[in-house]
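Q: I'm writing up a methods section and want to include an example of the input and output format. Could you take the sequence below and give the corresponding predicted structure tokens, formatted cleanly so I can copy it straight into the document?
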Amino acid sequence: MTAATLLMVVDGAGVVLRWSPRAREIWLRSDSEAVGRTALSLVAPDLGTPGEASGNGTRPGSGPLVIHDVDGSPVDLRVRVVPLSDGAVAWGVFEEGDDATRLDTPTAVFDILHANTHEAFIVVDPALRVLSVNEAACALVGVTAEKALDRPVAEVCRPARPEEFEDVLRRVLTDGTPLSDYPVQLEPVDASSRERFADISAFPLRNARGVVLSLTDVTESVRNNRRAQALGSVRERVGRSLDVVTTCQELVEALVPGFADIAVVEVVDAVVRGEDPPLSPLGRDIPLRRAAFRVDGPSHRAQAHPVGDVRAVPTPTPYSQVLSDLRPRTVTLDENTPWLGTDPDRARAIRASGARVLLTAPLALRGAVLGLLSLYRVRPHDSFDENDLAVTGELAAHTALSIDNARRYTREHTIAAALQHHLLPPEPPSQTAMEFAPLHVPADAGAGTWYDAFGLPGARTALVIGEVGGSGIDAATAMGQIRTVIHTLAALDLDPDELLARLNDAVVRLAHEREALPASDPLRGQPLRAGCVYVVHDPLEETCVMASAGHPAPLVAHPGGLVHIPQIPTGPLLGSRDGPPFATAAVPVRDGSVLALRTTSFPVPASTADDRTTGPLGVALTRLDRPLADIRDDVLYRLRDTTGHHDVLLLLARTRAFPPDRAATWDLDFVPTAASTARHHAQERLGEWRVDEETAFATELIVSELVTNALRYGEPPIRLRLIKDATLTCEVSDAGGAAPRLRHARTADEGGRGLFICAQMSHNWGIRYSAPGKTIWTEQTLGQGPGSGV
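A: Here is the clean output for your methods example:
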């Protein structure tokens, strides 16, 4: 032979890609028997692959090889193994004659690529014009070989970004570095075709004589990845919020861009409020709220209605049909679409956005309709297929479940908020010695915070603020129970520390009841914990006595501009079975001071070196020369972020001096005539106060009985105090520690009727203990005489 003859073409792994007529003649095997098998298993099973052979004659180049024919007999051949591209994507095996000439590499490459019917190959020259193209490439790019030859490769392949495509190929030519799996979007073959995607690998020919392109159609793979990414994004992002509208917004953000160009979510309006969704088919008059909208581009022209708009769906349209039969459907959109006239607003938005196809699916759960998902694609030749329809059904089902969870939470939160609203007191009316301004910023969760402000005997005022751990109805219910216990204990006129101790006992009992619930009750596993601060303001003593159960101390702002947090002992949270005892601290307050009781969710003010506080609350309290309501609003406006799991609650209380002419105190001698003296003092002062005759008579009798009891059972000194406020208070104090009790004396008894008489003549009565002794007090309603009730 006088020239090299191609025997076969193998890839980098030694697998036969082409089997020549000369090879069929030598080894008597057809193309189907040889292509796809390793070459050495056919011709030289005792050697390695051509590209891996050593210097014994099997390295690329010339040399003797022990070749066998089909019968296993040696064949006298001289072969040359040549890489057909710098990337070694294929190797040519040639039979050499004695005067073999240099191989024409491009020509050999053409023969190889034309022989491969499975992979798409294109050979281009340095000017990026097509030199050769095989049948697989012609089928992929949609042109014949005759029309492809000598044309720019960008015109043949029609990439979506031709300039970028050509720049990449020129870099392969210039650098000589192969390119692997470069993704390219190809234009459709014709107007009725869909967009296509291909991975392109490029290998430079030896001596920069051109480039071999290998094209792999990955259209379906790209579409599958897009579906998988959309479904994964929805599963990851949708349902993180327990808010219906936010859940809908999460859905459109997960789908646009990527799976759709425009996404619209509409929800049954009742569902947004937490109500039960209606069953399918949806009635024509049931309104839907546009909860979320997203478009990959300008949105002002693509919206038929603004987000938040509420209206029924026109019928007949694909949207109404989906809400009727709960089956998703795809619809082609063009000027001849008949139902667009039924919904002019959507028709206008569809034309303005350029949407070409619609996929609409129901958001339904167990036959109940929660809403509607509408997806649009704008790009030409980009439509929805059956696989897209199936994936949309899956992500719609996931979203429907998330919306229903949010709806259930909204409903529970609405009930809890309503319960809390009815359990919380209205804004407390101002008292003689104190005015109030509460601030309540409800959160998405919570309902366990509360405050209270109510009067105590002796012109005193009780202030309470606290919160129960957890959220929802259970927290609101526990809050109502604790608040009721506080009112009951406050009626006993206990000191703050003793009140908290008894309150803790009550919460422990409530916790025991919770632990005794059935194992199936989720409330059983939730510990009952609460914190609160209890403050008693005494305007006559100008002090505030306070105690804390695991709750921040109030801020105290003085008229001079000083704002500080008093150091008070902090006891354990309510419901704790162990811990230090509760203790009190007395804080002096003057006329015009402001107390600020806050929940733990309120931004914590920072203290400076001189014990002054900063932050929104601290700054607002430095100016007390304003109405208390203005100070409260100032605090609210300074808050930057009030979001959280619990309410933001603040109770502002400004102290006022008690009028000195409406309180009178007398120290009495410890002598038998003390009761007569006390009656005389009371008679004079009641006359000055112009108290009605019946009330004055009852008060004189009460004073006489209480002083007599103090002389008989108490210890000196004895003090009498009368206070005229909303009620008339009579207090008798002595240093004795004996606890008096109400007795029902028999007819023949000469004594034992003192407290019984006082109880009958007054509206309320009680005993208050202190370090010096005890105080017995009564309250009478002004304007009513004896017999007004106990």
